[in-house]
Design brief:
This protein is an alpha/beta fold and about 250 residues long. Helix content is about 30%, strand content about 30%. It contains eight helices and eleven strands. It has a six-stranded mixed β-sheet, with helices on both faces. It has a three-stranded antiparallel β-sheet with strand order 2-1-4, covered by helices on one side. It binds adenosine-5'-triphosphate.
Amino acid sequence: MQVVLDGLEVRYGARTAVTGVGLAARGGEVLALVGPNGSGKSSLLRAVAGLQRHGGSVVFEGVPRGGIGFMPQDSGARTGLTVLETVLLGRHRALGWRVPAAEVARAGDVLRSLGIAHLAARPIGELSGGQRQMVFLAQVLAAEPAVLLLDEPTSALDIRHALQLLALVRDLTRARGLVTVVAIHDLNAAARFADRMALLRDGRLMAAGPPDAVLTEATIAEVYRVAAHVHVAPDGHVAISPSRALADR
Ligand SMILES: Nc1ncnc2c1ncn2[C@@H]1O[C@H](COP(=O)(O)OP(=O)(O)OP(=O)(O)O)[C@@H](O)[C@H]1O
């Protein structure tokens, strides 16, 4: 299974948000989409999710119908639904008018895997931003998608929950052979959990490949305009210590 982008282009009126992006996201691998604010990450993800008109092609090879799960950057919804009800909505394709006990148990399992089973009966409108972010990931995972598209899923999470969430996403991706694409700003987390990275600037793909090939001091200086020390951590992952912003070009 894979998702192949070729010449992908997204425009908003006269503004081009993504241009000429060619990229393959493969089953069983986490692909991290990184790049500065406004570089086109969300636009690319929305195009792949089928929510954004685009030029070029997005080809889903071996992906079952309805197999795409998308978690937007700002899920926002402050409904009166409980956490459990919100997660069950992720199963709407499988549900009729009645909710079988097995579905409730399955939703409970997803909540447990994210460490938020204790929130099941709480209205989502009363949760913290980070708790809500995990609930919306649970909703997406409950649908058991083959392609998982996550837009900054850890932006509201503390370091422990961010590590737990990314580890879970990586493990599910490997175990189920999912095609997973995660837009993320935290380069160290991306380097740790992604199999491959794609670096965007101004809507263009600047580099793609394994984290140690993409995250060099030269590419970080060029794309982010930041001076950074890049080294290999004792556990073998590439690690970035940013030190200062460089002058604009
Ligand atoms: N609905 C829209 N209408 C017009 N322009 C848009 C719209 N959405 C995004 N853009 C523009 O498209 C470009 C890419 O935006 P996008 O949200 O894809 O970037 P991003 O890399 O996800 O940014 P961030 O890291 O800040 O979330 C930006 O210049 C942005 O201003």
